Amino acid sequence: MTAGGTAGGKTDPYGPDSGRVAADWAEAGRVYDVLGTPVPVWRGRLADEPGDEDLRLLSAQESARYRSFHAPVLAARYAGAHAALRRALASVLHTDPAAIEFGRDPCPVCGERKHGRPTITFPVTGVQFSLSHSGPDWLCAVADGTAVGADVERLRRQVPSGLHEAVLSPAERSYLTSRPPETWPAEFARCWTRKEAVVKGSGVGVATDLRRVEVRPDRATALVGHRGAEGGPDTWAVRDLPAGPGHRAAVAVAVVRR
After folding, report:
1. pLDDT mean over 119-129
2. CA 138 to chain centre
3. pTM passes above 0.70
4. H, E, C per residue of 27-95
């Protein structure tokens, strides 16, 4: 399959042994190839006011979270992003978006479920997902039977002083300084979204030392070494995603060794 190609073409991008869920993705989001793993991705922009249809899809827990926001715009974007996630997953799982139930795996570092990797608890499925939103922009990535992480970020005009040293490895800093200075915010965001995608996929989040998550920004698709937990995946494939002007985005999937 050509990277970035859609699943709705005349030829089957998955092949005869791809499995039922991958075949169901013919009506899903745009599908990207991440070192052989098909990853449907949905993205869009969120309204600044809540929609009644979005609010009706939320669970009791999501509704409570929506009401906890003090800023109406942030509340509306939260509701819109989670409703969009439900619709995207429903198109894969062939179920009512409101019927999907979510939980969390324990955090690989501390064991707490409050900030572990989100999972689908109903219906029973091997599908995994990652949701990210930055301002009004949201992005969701899905993978069948393997961990996935995704991130979208709005570009900053300038990277805060000291942040390079705090999150980039020596090789990444060398790559950054080899580029024209006017590209540094975009190149830093490229590293950042790749790192975020990997650590979100592992369930650790930014609790890890991001300097140790080497994402090879010089390569279109890179293999990244990172283990969130003992016995968990230790190798991730990461690639950039189209994100539009003023944004960077990336997706990562766990590489299963056979």
Report:
1. 95
2. 10
3. yes
4. HCCEEEEECCEEEEEEEEECCCCCCHHHHHHCCHHHHHHHHHCCCHHHHHHHHHHHHHHHHHHHHHHCC
